[in-house]
Structures are given as C-alpha cells and as structure tokens.
Alcohol dehydrogenase catalytic domain-containing protein (Actinacidiphila epipremni), 436 residues
Amino acid sequence: MKAVVWHAIGDIRLDDVPEPKIQDRYDAVVRITASAICGTDLHFVRGTMPGMAPGRILGHEAVGVVEEVGSGVRDFRPGDRVVVPSTVGCGSCSYCRAGYYAQCDRANPGGPQAGTVFFGGPEAAGGLDGLQAQYARVPYAHVGLVPLPDTVDDAQGVLLSDIYPTAWFGARLAEIGTGDTVAILGGGPVGQAAVACARLQGAGRIILVDGVPGRLDLAARQHAEVVDFNAEDPVEAIRELTGGIGVDRVVDAVGVDAQRPARGPAAEQAAGRAEQDERERARAAPDARPSGDTWVPGDAPSQAARWAVRAVAKAGTIGTVGVYPPRVETYPFGEAFMKNLTLKSGNCNHRAIVPHLVSLVAAGALDPSPLATRWPAVEDVIEAYASFDRREQGWTKVALDFGGEGRMPPASGEHAGSGAATTAGAGGTRAAGQGG
Ligand SMILES: NC(=O)c1ccc[n+]([C@@H]2O[C@H](COP(=O)([O-])OP(=O)(O)OC[C@H]3O[C@@H](n4cnc5c(N)ncnc54)[C@H](O)[C@@H]3O)[C@@H](O)[C@H]2O)c1
Ligand SMILES: [Zn+2]
Ligand SMILES: [Zn+2]
C-alpha cells in the first residue's frame, strides 16, 4: 500500500509498504478514505519534536471504513464508517475512565509514565504507524473508533479526528465562559478551528494573532478581530482592544515552532532577545536540516508563551495546546505567577470530545469542512507537505484523498475549501449532495 514514511529530519517520502495486520484481539484494520497533514507532523520533519524512528508511517488524522476487527471488538463490523481519533487509550484504566484518554496508563508499551500514545509519532508515543496510508491498524479499536453517520461526510469527519477536538479542548483548558474576551495565538488549522469552538463555548469577543496575511484573512472571515504581529505589537494591540485590561482567556495554538516577528514594532522589541531566542532554538531543534525555506524550525520557541502571559488579564487563564516537547524548558513563569494566572496545557483527550463534535456536525451546528483548503492527490503529498510547511497562500489545512474515490471533492460544497469554519447561524453551508 501507499504511505507517507518518515526517513529522517527533512526527509519524508511516499513509499510502498506492507499492509497492516490484526495483532491483538482489540485491534481493527481500517481502510483510510481521507487523511490530513497536521502542524504536529511538521515538528517531526523540522526536527523540533525528537525521537522518530526511520520507517515510521506518519499521520494521525483519518476517517475510513472498518476492514477487519479482532475477536474482542464487539461494537464495530467491517463496512462501518469511522473517525480515528489521533490519540489512543485503553478505555479501562482510571485515567481513561475519567476522560483523560491522552494519559492512559496502559496503551503505551513504555509503561504508565511513558506519555501520550498517538498514531505516526515518536517511539516514546508508543511507536504506532500512522494514518497517512491506505490502511492502518488501530489498537483498542473497541474504545477508540467513533462511528460516523452518513450525514457527516469525509471532509467534515477528517477534521474531527484531531483539529476540531484539539481546538475544543484548548478552549476548555482556557476556561472560556459566556461573554469572555478571548485571544487565540496562531491562525493555523488549530487556531482557525478554535475560533469556531470558542464561539460555541460562549466567547463574547475573539482576537486572533498570526503573522501570515492569508491566515489572518481566514480568521477575519470567521469574524474574529485579527492582529498581524508583523505590523503591530500584539500585546499592545490586545491591550488597546480591551480597554487596557487584556483578554480574559488565551488559547496558545502555536507551540515550539513559534516565530519572532520579522518586521514592525514587535520586531524592534524582540531584537534584544536574539541571542536568547537562538539558544532556545538550538536546544529545541539541534538536528534541524532545513532545505532553503522548507523545514525551517521556528526561531523563537517561547515567543507565543511570552505573548500569552503578557496579553492575558490579571487572574486570567491560558490554555496551551500548541505542542512543547520536554526539551523546551523556557516559560515566563514568574510573570504568570505575579498575575495570579491559571495555566492549563496538554495533549487533547480526543476520544472524550470527538463523539460530541460528531453530534454537533450531524445536527448542523458546526461545519468544519471549509477549513480543508487543499485536497491534493496522494501522489503529490510530499509537495503538499512542503507547501503547508512554508505556509503558502491557501495551504491552511491539507486533506488527503487516500480512498481515491472522490468521496470528498473539495469544491463540492458552497463553502468547501473556502477556509472559513462555519458555526450555527451561518446557514446553507452544506450543499445538497455533499455526504448524502
Ligand atoms: N495538544 C494537542 O493535542 C495538539 C493536537 C494537534 C495539534 N497540536 C499542535 O497545535 C499547534 C498548531 O497546529 P497547526 O496544525 O495549526 O499548525 P501550523 O503550523 O499550521 O500553525 C501554527 C500557526 O502559528 C503561527 N505562528 C508562528 N509563530 C507565532 C507567534 N509567535 N504568535 C502567533 N502565531 C504564530 C504560524 O504562522 C501558523 O499559522 C502545533 O504545535 C501542533 O503540534 C496539538
Ligand atoms: Zn495533529
Ligand atoms: Zn487507559
């Protein structure tokens, strides 16, 4: 079968590899119909998240059709359409039962302290092959897989695998409540989805910060107030927009590949930190192998964290879902302490959130599909990775048609591929015929 395979930092390929087989009675094999590329995959190729094994199949976002199940899987049959949540939990340990699926005690062969298990990640994340492939083996499938009704199509479903649950989780971590003023740092797929999720959770105002004009446009089309960190100092802009107080809540949807502002007043401020930023970058990505302007790690790993702490109001909350691996040890903790901030972070407990989001989509309260702005052929996947990495205009979220059945042509719906996620009230966003 075809699969995207990690060979080394800066070296990924579309390879022919053997199809996966059932190894355990709670396994399922899923035929992938749609997958997607995530900002997390970029960390592996840029070298900001260590520990990948050569030969590992990448990807942790997919929808598909159950092909085969082990004898312990009583709730799924071949032919069922499913979302595959990115992280894996056993469903039986005390953490899973409390909804902390990403902190499962049993799923990681390295033991209870070894960390979150997810598809297509480093060896420390369980060493599981990923979902950017024609078929995938899903452990604990009886717990992990989430059934998809026919009214939710592949374009919607694939965004419920990781991006929307993570954005939802980030908004919950940030403790967004009715009427809150919220800042979202990062306008990548997770940040864009966080606009819709923050709104569904009651946010009164939403301010989104990024430095890429096309991504700011998308957020503005979702009616977020946008701040370009290459044109304004984002902390000053947020204070000005909030009567000097700051925002009640922040969602950090950037993580370790954060960038310094390249121009404008914030760049002048950041100039004094050049050496410190470079030390942090060297520590975060010691083995980076950029090729020209591709696979370049972020040049200021703690930049988003610093802006979050400064832009939030006293006694406010920061929810961090942008990924910071253990090598990142810089956080403005003293400043956060002095402001009585609440800091929450971590890997999304996907399995606890995906079913609710499937219901919201089925009920017409949320349509995530417009965020899938590119839908390249599988043969073009490596070029697509590079375009997404360089944040080229229009390459906000890349979905991959692994099924090759054209189930999800990107331009079939009125708003499909337009980039703007739509929440209740947008109306008419599901074109007739999309997903039946
Ligand atoms: N916690 C989880 O479970 C989980 C799940 C999925 C993704 N993630 C993480 O979420 C983050 C975002 O994912 P994505 O797919 O949207 O990635 P992405 O790389 O497409 O988006 C990151 C965005 O941040 C912007 N940015 C860079 N520096 C910035 C700064 N200093 N201030 C504000 N914005 C800045 C970039 O321009 C880009 O638009 C990644 O770190 C990813 O690993 C975490
Ligand atoms: Zn992801
Ligand atoms: Zn568990």
